[in-house]
Design goal:
The complex is a heterodimer of chains A (222) and B (261).
Chain A lengths: L3 H33 L2 H32 L3 H34 L9 H23 L2 H30 L6 H33 L12
Chain B lengths: L11 E12 L2 E12 L3 E5 L6 H7 L10 E9 L2 E2 L7 H7 E4 L10 H12 L5 H14 L3 H4 L12 H14 L4 E5 L7 H14 L4 E5 L3 H7 L2 E6 L2 E7 H6 L4 H7 L5
The chains are: A mainly alpha (222), B alpha/beta (261).
């Protein structure tokens, strides 16, 4: 039986896809701004964050409206509650992209230090994890969601390697690089947090599809 | 296979085993297996004609009033079979009381409505004992404060919600310990519905309640366990929380999300 409610849920999905595109662009641009020491691009990401904030509020309102109007159950309920959580995660990722750009602006006028190669690896990993978690949501792809969850450990390991590299090869060897190294350290932390949020999205996708809450590893992956 | 309501550690009040039921040649219940937990609210949901009211009426043999019905299988309450020919139906219906869709108080006073069942079941109560029972029963359904000065008032002059509470009080007076409720709020407005629901949650401390309802939100709000029925089958039976967030059977999912039909 066709339900008008399905059209509205489809509308929510579309809004989330739109939001995820905006966030992916923000993260991609923040990483590019870091790579290319591009002040303008960093400033653009910061100024456009307002649009993402407004989008987050809009999606929250759509979800609250759907709950109030339809009092959803089962998979409908899971889709809407998942949508609200993914919405919050996406907005947080966009904030982290802003944080990266703020760090870029701090170091963009200083002599560059050669950043550890693993930073590029970590930023690529963050972008891939977001892509995959959002694709898992759009395509209801359980396997892909699980894969994102396992990638998170690699992201944590990379962050630790980068931290050690920055401490040993820059801050301890040449304290004059400390300010720039700390900025890179923070950027690493922001990238790793983006990976965490991508993981949360993947966990939400598993709840959406299987009705099992797998966060904090209290339950086995289905 | 017994489908349990998900409270394996609790006492089973009603045990249904391979229950089949026919109205003439029409089979209304097919191989029902379930265990209903004591002092919990169990909701039976499903589309019209799925057999949920029939199942409810099996628990106090109300279907026996209909000609040409046939029951097979077993239903035990407190470990005692209730489907056999030697079962004392008066005693069964005293222990397993029923509240109907439309409240049906007797055309008597509030007081007489409460003591009516007591007079049938117990011959030797003093006036004081009757008075105490009326007070206790009305207090249980939160009607005492409203009606204590109007006990001689005709029950038919009460509001729909008060009448429904009075009908529940009648069951409490005769010490029913299982309350069957067949869409008890379907004729009530939202405010009165909320009051009856609150009452049910209070009553489950002492009573096992089974409610048939078409109102999904009501089932999810008040029940501990839920059974979904379709075409005479108990498709899924489990914790209400699971049924309404992540049902395991697609037919349940389709029904509670409004995709069925």
């Amino acid at each position: 039986m066709h339900r008008h409610f399905d059209d509205e849920l489809q509308g929510l999905n579309q809004e989330l896809i739109k939001m995820s595109e905006m966030v992916k662009t923000a993260i991609n641009h923040s990483v590019t701004a870091l790579d290319q020491r591009d002040r303008q691009m960093a400033e653009e990401v910061i100024s456009k964050d307002n649009e993402i904030d407004l989008m987050e509020i809009h999606i929250d309102e759509v979800c609250i409206d759907l709950i109030a109007k339809h009092q959803p159950m089962a998979s409908d309920l899971r889709l809407i509650t998942t949508g609200m959580k993914i919405n919050a995660d996406l907005e947080r990722m966009a904030d982290l992209a802003v944080n990266i750009c703020q760090r870029v602006l701090e170091i963009v006028n200083q002599d560059p230090i050669t950043p550890p190669a693993d930073i590029s690896k970590l930023s690529l990993m963050a972008e891939n994890m977001i892509n995959d978690s959002i694709t898992a949501f759009i395509e209801s792809n359980l396997q892909m969601a699980k894969q994102v969850m396992t990638s998170d450990d690699q992201a944590d390991k990379l962050r630790n390697d980068i931290k050690e590299d920055l401490l040993k090869n820059y801050m301890e060897k040449d304290p004059s690089t400390s300010r720039r190294a700390v900025a890179l350290l923070l950027i690493t932390r922001h990238l790793e947090r983006i990976c965490d949020h991508a993981t949360y999205v993947a966990e939400e996708v598993i709840y959406l599809m299987k009705g099992k809450i797998v966060k904090h590893h209290f339950q086995e992956l289905p | 296979m017994i489908i349990s309501g998900g409270n394996l550690d609790k006492t089973i009040k009603i045990k249904i085993l391979d229950l089949d039921f026919w109205y003439g040649t029409f089979q209304a219940l097919k191989k029902i297996n379930a265990s209903i937990t004591e002092k919990k609210i169990t909701a039976l949901i499903g589309p019209s004609g799925c057999g949920k009211s029939t199942l409810l009426r099996v628990f106090n043999r109300m279907n026996d009033f209909i000609e040409g019905v046939r029951t097979e299988g077993s239903v035990e309450i407190d470990g005692k079979e209730i489907l056999g020919p030697s079962v004392d139906l008066v005693s069964l219906r005293k222990n397993v009381g029923m509240v109907f869709q439309r409240p049906n108080p007797f055309p008597l006073s509030v007081y007489e409505n409460i003591v009516f069942g007591l007079r049938i079941h117990r011959d030797h109560l003093s006036k004081r004992e009757y008075d105490n029972m009326v007070e206790k029963s009305l207090k249980s359904v939160l009607l005492w404060d409203e009606l204590k000065d109007r006990l001689k008032k005709p029950a038919l002059s009460l509001s729909l919600e008060q009448k429904q509470r009075l009908c529940i009080a009648r069951l409490i007076a005769v010490k029913s310990d299982v309350l069957l409720m067949d869409e008890p709020c379907s004729t009530l407005d939202p405010q009165s519905t909320a009051k009856i629901e609150e009452l049910m949650i209070e009553l489950k401390k002492d009573y096992t309640i089974i409610i048939v309802t078409h109102n999904m939100q009501q089932a999810s709000r008040i029940s501990d366990d839920t059974g979904f029925m379709l075409l005479g089958e108990l498709v899924e039976f489990g914790k209400t929380k699971s049924i309404f967030t992540a049902p395991s059977d697609k037919r349940t999912e389709d029904y509670i999300t409004g995709r069925y039909g």
